[in-house]
Amino acid sequence: MKNTSATKPLIEEIELKELATALNFGYLSYNYDPSSDCLYICTSPEYRLAPDKQIFITEIKLHTWDIKQYSITNTTGKYLCTDSGWSGIVTEGYLLIKEYDSRCDIYKIQLSNPASVVKLKRVNATSVQGVPKLVINGRVYYDAYDDQLMKQNMFKVI
What we know:
The chain contains no helices and 13 strands. It is mainly beta. A hairpin with a 6-residue loop joins strand 9 (106-110) and strand 10. The chain has strands at 27-33, 38-44, 48-49, 54-61, 67-73, 80-81, 88-91, 94-98, 106-110, 117-119, 131-136, 139-143, 149-153.
């Protein structure tokens, strides 16, 4: 049988602008945010991000191919999880990321104002296992590796 998906012609070739800051692929995470039609690539040189250290976020708007980069300083006072599984996701203008040492606490950091940090409140959960996969109607859904999905309302704060 002929594989039609492998023989389709290239529809469009895109050339992206050169990045102002090169991507550091020590540890990375990426996700698509349908609310902004953007691809986010988050990189960190460390597997756990110390207070006052930085996460670099590259935003690619898929409808215009414009690129914007953010340097987010960890102002939580806690170590954040940036290891190989990454426990963060960018959505609706915020980076949602787990604390490294507790793996229970999730912080919401505004991209346009990284000093705006909110610790999310857990409801009916002693821990948050897995990695964030998607956000629907303000709720973050985590893949818990065992055919379970956990959800966290991103607007409830402690």
